[in-house]
Amino acid sequence: MDYPLQTKRIYEPKAASDGQRVLVDRIWPRGVSKAAAALDLWLKDVAPSTELRKWFAHRPDRWADFQRRYFLELEASAAMVELRTLTQAGPVTLLYAARDRDHNEAVALAAFLKV
Q1: Treating both helix axes as pointing N-terminal to C-terminal, what angle do 63-75 and 105-114 enclose, rounded to 10 degrees?
Q2: pLDDT digits 0-9 by tens, 50-79
Q3: Cα–Cα distance between 7 and 105 in angstroms, integer?
Q4: What is the C-alpha to C-alpha distance for residues 56 and 40, in angstroms, rounded to an integer?
Q5: 86 phi and psi angles, rounded to 5 deg
Q6: Alpha-carbon gap, residue 44 to 25, rounded angstroms
Q7: 3-class secondary-structure state, position 5
């Protein structure tokens, strides 16, 4: 991948360096209007399954197992083609709502895309 890929909380303001802003949560973030989100794309289908998201429950002690399970889901996701195409066309910011900046689906997804 030649272009920058970053992660960012959706509650942070849009920046010129964001490039394409892609929400990777399955559920719309609480308290954010569509205008304030300034999204280019909402890719629900690359978000973890509801079952995996609930199991993980943002528990750092489950992070390694969460990533392993999530990567298996991503390998079977048709939406990854669209996301990979975007990352080859220019900078992309993966947006998420979780409070934990180190243990969330956007961080895992970015790691998956960089492999």
Answers
A1: 60
A2: 999 999 999 999 999 999 999 999 999 999
A3: 10
A4: 27
A5: -60, -45
A6: 6
A7: strand
